Amino acid sequence: MMISRILEQQQALTQVLSADKKLRHLIPTWQDIDVLESVSKSLGPMLDFTDALSGDEYVNVIFVKPVLQLFNTSLLEMREEDTDLTKNIKKKMQDYLNEKYEDDDTQKLLDISSFLDPQFKMDFISADKKTQVKARVASQMMECQEKSSCSTDVEPNVTSAPQAKKAKKSLGSFFKQSETAAKGDSSLTLKDALEAELNTYLLTPPIDKEGDPLAWWKVHKLIFPRLARLARKYLCIPVTSSPSERLFSTSGNIVTCQRTWLKPAKFDRLVFNSSLFV
């Protein structure tokens, strides 16, 4: 923004500086202007993106892979009219971002996170990795299902409770017994259910690019229960410090020179209540 302002007011600055003999040496030369224009062309496209990123209420890990693709193909794309300095700055930024996320474990995390984003799904996953990512997601769905089954299958000890009167059997109880008897094929049935849930999710139309993935999962968690568990696991990972910085600003507005005697418990409640209405 500072460089853009200097370029915008270049003529006025030259007139002001040239009027004073002691300040004429500060008049920007054509070499200075070329450098400023090159820097402005490389950093200018990032300004609007940075404002949008910091302005969103919550940005999580599912946006990392699409954003990297956006940088490489659009915001930091080399253009014919770019100077050598502009191209060099763009390349430095591209190399830094790509190297930062090139670790294999990081890529696996980003692939699954992108898969769980109803805006993009498989759009930013390379063709040779799609089968692996889908298998990895299915494996994690199976693990989540087994953990949830273990936590819900344990019945509380009710030996001390009075024995209830034996209830009369209903017609539905016979179907339940038949289902229990066929439980030997439960592993195959669960595998088919996971595959069907994955395929159905991939066939659902993507949401609008300005839509809220969290709101989408809140509505569709009953349709995709196992995928929704994974979404809760991955969508809680933040990738920007903007929310925490807003919270620090809120804390600074609450504890002022006139309110230094607030007790910690009272302060925590005030910050919590303020964060609900940000």
Automatic annotation (TrEMBL):
It comes from the Eukaryota. One of its GO terms (molecular function) is protein dimerization activity. Residues 197-272 form the HAT C-terminal dimerisation domain. This is E3 SUMO-protein ligase ZBED1-like.
